[in-house]
């Protein structure tokens, strides 16, 4: 689905253009023995009454559950198990299985060793890229493609497209500039381009790298997105 975003070029002109996620294609297709296409279905696997905790509480202990499993099938609800799961809503439950109607959202910050550094109330993070946010600045920070792919893992991409004749010239010139330089442009949000690219409220923060190509009177501008920086792993002393 296309969205509108604002960009600034090297001449400090800004324009609103279309940004579109590429369509995803199924890499793997499952078929039956006769070649018919298989479709994925969701089925009920268990119920509250047949979970391990429920069986232990009912039987009196793990040993009693083991004996019950040998003598019968208490873990299977024959009326429910295997039924197709159609329209369903996600709910949150407490440890005892009761439905949680109101929850306090917390943001948990972890240290590199996975220990909890801090717990704080969750605060919504607003989008930095949308049709009503300031134009993304031309940073002028050009990076070689081989340098970028060695430092960052690319996870998504957006294709930038014109919405009229004026924005065609705007984007074509931008693509030509990048192609001639043979570089990718680092893209960030904010007046100083020091903020991450966030495309929706509480969305994933990305770094952006803009690639441009032309062929005759056509162009292609692709905004590559990364949320993972690649860093060398420090080897332990004596390791090779």
Reported by name, the CATH topology of the domain at 2-21 and 126-229 is Ku70, Chain: A, Domain 2
Task: Give the neighbour order of strands across the main sheet.
Answer: 1-2-8-11-10-9-7
Structural class: alpha+beta
β-sheet strand percentage: 25-35%
SSE layout and pairing:
Elements: E1 2-8, E2 14-20, H1 52-59, H2 62-71, E3 92-93, E4 99-100, E5 106-110, E6 116-121, E7 142-143, H3 145-151, E8 152-161, H4 165-181, E9 184-187, E10 207-215, E11 218-229
Antiparallel strand pairs: 1-2, 2-8, 3-4, 5-6, 7-9, 8-11, 9-10, 10-11
Helix pairs in contact: 1-2
Structure notes:
This protein has a 7-stranded antiparallel beta sheet. The mean pLDDT is 89. Among the domains are: 2-21 and 126-229, Ku70, Chain: A, Domain 2 (Beta Barrel), CATH 2.40.290; 43-83, no CATH class. The protein has helices spanning 52-59, 62-71, 145-151, 165-181, and strands spanning 2-8, 14-20, 92-93, 99-100, 106-110, 116-121, 142-143, 152-161, 184-187, 207-215, 218-229. It contains 4 helices and 11 strands. The protein is elongated and about 80 Å long. β3 (92-93) and β4 (99-100) form a beta hairpin. By secondary structure, it is an alpha+beta fold.
Give short descriptive properties of this protein:
Ku70, Chain: A, Domain 2, 11 strands, 7-stranded antiparallel beta sheet, 240 residues, two-stranded antiparallel ribbon, 4 helices, alpha+beta, 28% strand
